[in-house]
Amino acid sequence: MTTSASAPAAAPSTTAVAARTKGLRKEYGSTVAVDRVDLELPEGAVLGMLGPNGSGKTTTIRMLLGLVRPTQGEIELLGTPLPDGAEQALPHVGALVEGPGFHPFLSGRENLVRCAAFEPLLPKKQIKQAVEDALERVGLAQAAHRRFRGYSLGMKQRLGLAAALLVPRKLVVLDEPTNGLDPAGTREIRKIIAELHEQGSTVLVSSHLLSEVEATCTHVAVLHRGTVVAQGELTELLQAGGSALHVITPDVETALSALRQAKISARPLGDGLRVELAGTSAPQVIETLVKAGAGVYEATRWKTGLEELFARLTEAEEAERGMSAVDTLDGGAR
Amino acid sequence: MITRQLGSEVRWMLRRPRTLIGLFGLVLVPIVISFGIWTADGDGGGPGIAAILRGNGMVVPIFTLFLSLNLLLPLVASIWAADGLAGEAQHGTLRGLLVAPVSRVRLLFVKLFGLTAMSLFAVTLMAVVGIIAGTAFLGNDGMMTLSGTTLTTAEGLLRIAFFVVLVTFQMVAVGAVALAVSATTEHPLVVQAATMTSIIVFQVLGQFSSLDWLHPFLITTGFPGLVDVMRDPIPFDQISDSTLLAGCYLLIGTGLAAIRLVTKDS
Amino acid sequence: MNKRKVTLAAAAAGVLTGATGLSLLAMPAGAGQPPSLPPVAPETLVEQVLTSEPGAFGGTIEVDNKLGLPAIAEIPQLADGKHSGRVWTDGNGKMRLALPNGQSEQTIVDDGTTTWVWNSADNEVTKSERRADKPDAEPDAKAADPATAAKEIVGLTKEFSDISVDGTARVANRAAYELVLTPKASEKTLVREVRIAVDAELKMPLRVAVLTNGTAEPAGTVGFTEINVGPQDAKLFEFTPPANAEVTTPEAKEREGREKRPEAGVEQALRGEDPQVFGTGWDTVLGARIPTEAMTQVPAEAQGLVDRFTKEVSGSWGSGKLFTTKVATVLIADDGRVVAGAVPEQVLFDTIGQVK
Ligand SMILES: Nc1ncnc2c1ncn2[C@@H]1O[C@H](COP(=O)(O)OP(=O)(O)O)[C@@H](O)[C@H]1O
Ligand SMILES: [Mg+2]
């Protein structure tokens, strides 16, 4: 309870950061779970932490929450260094880490009441109301009296979310929040994330699914084998490699000259061409080609930037495990 | 804040089905004993307190607790300690408490408090049921001591209260060591097994006179001495030795649990 | 500085304190520094011991027994090992003894006119009225108190001993002189010396240790581990038999008890009405004759017990069984003659012929 942290105002950074790590490393015996992780989570951002299973997302989050002591590196959470400043920062942080943890013999409501009793920012008188609000918010009000033991995976996940949202938070950390949810549940989670974003909370959400991150995040960090391979704003990353179209056509020459006339840059590639989409759009390119009489068998958007990177990572990973790269809702992450 | 956490902890323990079953089992002990003595014929006799139970209902709570201290009460304490940390880790709720946040030292304090409060509750409950069952089945004509004197009912109640405190303390000491084990694992059963095995092994070791150099270190060595509460006047040296011995276990258990909790990754 | 380090240090300190406490509890209470007291002449000290009137006190007595005695059912407190009991006396003949036996307890209360013996194990009270012709109704009770026991020893043996004061000691947290009685060279006894710790202030014996030939450790020690001198609660010297306890008299008890226990016969004979005394001083031998019917009525299992602790001997005096401990020897002839004393067996063989 002493003043162990400097005032947030003294932070030298230009833009305010909700969390920051420097050179983070965690070893479990001989396995290195996380290495050289420098994360920056700007205030008000929704950061998607992307990475295949086992890439170190959960470990990073645990270190951010002071649950695990880093082997090396520094962490700053809401302006205080961790793990020493945990007691100052954590009341403002809501978290759902590696699956929801609750007591099976208590009802959903009782479980939340028990969580609420340990929330420093929640006055005793408001506990009851806060619990009801949180239950309402995640759509569990109807099932709140039932024992946690009987909850479906999705309901458990929602209750975990409710516990993270008991108090208005500056930062909400969600580790694979859509795990086990049906499409409707996934949409609700996205809605809640959007609401939090609107209210000005910072959100850190980890996932092994790009689509999820794409839909909700402003920022992205990609982890692979314990290290950050890319991070930044989502739009920037998605456009990092520019946008292109892969056109398969038998009339490469005709197509090239037509495009050159239309001032669209393109070059032959394999059994077709690669067309840069800078200053133009895919329908325009197709129209030009069709007008010139070049036959278009197939036109696919080139995977770019983040997408390309993530696909490479996940496909490599899943191929290793002998699984198809089919994007399923459950994602198989555990 | 702390009172609300302590309250929540005790409520949580009381809500657990296992706790309720355990308490129910404990309450049966004095009833069965009273009933057994009531139906048995003969003029009493036997070793220790059992000999003076006949017609002496006020001794039932003491006899019950004295008997239960050997196995039943350590078992219950170990269950509570096991559920306190290992059980919470198993259910993933420990994480939730730690990010709430509850500091790890505070958490240990809350757990120790829960253990103490529930132990006191269980022991008191057994004593109260013992008094009632003893009075009902065996009669209550003051409390006859091992020294052959007869105490008034008020004095007897005071003795029972004193014994309740002593037994609770022994139970908490066992529980504190169990908490230290509990902090190292995610499997509550491991904690219970380790604690009960130790208690039983200690008692077996206590039987070998060739190991008498070891006996003063075993917490179970202190259990029989508590019977001195039933002597008149009370000789305090064995009682204080037993209590100090338990105090050492309490310190060691709490210290080890704290070290483990503070350095633990969850 | 760092909160975590402070916590760890505090926790480690707690563990260390607990461990230290455990080893302190396990260590036998140290004797402590012997107190420094003004020198005293042995003769003066003996005189003071014999004339001292300890008055009222209450305390805990510990008997450390390495005699090699078999456990005797009636006084298990005297079997081998450490046993303790509590004693209270008002200094005027009233006394109370509490002898725990495991979790049971034997309580002996002498309220001035009646001696009550309560045994929790059988829920039984033995009541004996003190008769005018027998003022010391319960020699058992008296002997367990080291103060009285030591006084008796000193009184009986001082003429036959070399007496010296060998430094000081702290007993039951009180300063004491160590009075040493060494049997004179002419005494044919097993005893090498008797050490009596005498309270420096009250001149009351606090501890008696008997050392025998051939061992450095005392064969037996009786002493206070705790004592508080001064008036004791008068209620301690009253006894009301518990409502549902059986009250008997010693006579009734003996009638049923004698057939059961063979050693009781020996005990009874030697301690009984008129034992024959041979010799004086340390090598005094007591003799008696057990009625033959008592000898033959010994049940088989009790006979087994006797055989286990005795050895068969024979000589010109006849044949019998010899029972040996470090400080005493008992010879029971097959015809019922019994001799006993703190003497080597040869002395008994030489004496038994004189038993009538
Ligand atoms: N407690 C632990 N003990 C040993 N290894 C661990 C532990 N936690 C995580 N790991 C390892 O660290 C790596 C990263 O795990 P994790 O952070 O859970 O990945 P993710 O959450 O991205 O799936 C994995 O290889 C995992 O096996
Ligand atoms: Mg994970």
CATH topology of the largest domain in chain A: Rossmann fold
Percent helix of chain A:
25-40%
Mean pLDDT of chain A: 83
Determine the fraction of residues in helical runs of chain C and give it as a percent range.
Answer: 25-40%
Low-pLDDT runs of chain C: 132-142
Q: Which CATH top level class of the largest domain in chain A fits? A: Alpha Beta
Region (Disordered) (chain C): 122-146, 245-268
InterPro entries (chain C): LolA/LolB/LppX, Sporulation_related
Protein name (chain C): Outer membrane lipoprotein-sorting protein
Keywords (chain C): Signal
General description of the model:
The complex is a heterotrimer of chains A (334), B (266) and C (356). Chain A is of the alpha/beta class. Chain A is 33% helix and 25% strand. Chain A has two domains: 18-238, Rossmann fold, CATH 3.40.50; 243-302. Chain A contains eleven helices and 15 strands. The model of chain A is unreliable at 1-13 and 323-334 (pLDDT under 50). Chain B has nine helices and two strands. Chain B has a two-stranded antiparallel ribbon with strand order 1-2. In chain B, a hairpin with a 5-residue loop joins strand 1 (143-144) and strand 2. The two termini of chain B are 24 Å apart. Chain C has 356 residues and is α+β, with helices and mostly antiparallel strands. Chain C has two domains: 34-237, Lipoprotein localisation LolA/LolB/LppX (outer membrane lipoprotein receptor (LolB), chain A, Clam); 246-354, 2-Layer Sandwich (TATA-Binding Protein). Mean pLDDT of chain C is 79; it is low at 132-142. The chains are: A alpha/beta (334), B mainly alpha (266), C alpha+beta (356). Chains A and B meet through helix 3 of A and helix 1 and helix 5 of B. Bound molecules: adenosine-5'-diphosphate and magnesium ion. The site of adenosine-5'-diphosphate (ADP) has 11 residues of chain A, from strand 2 and helix 1. Chain C: Residues 124-143, 251-268 have a biased composition (Basic and acidic residues). Chain C: This is Outer membrane lipoprotein-sorting protein. Chain C: It comes from Lentzea xinjiangensis.
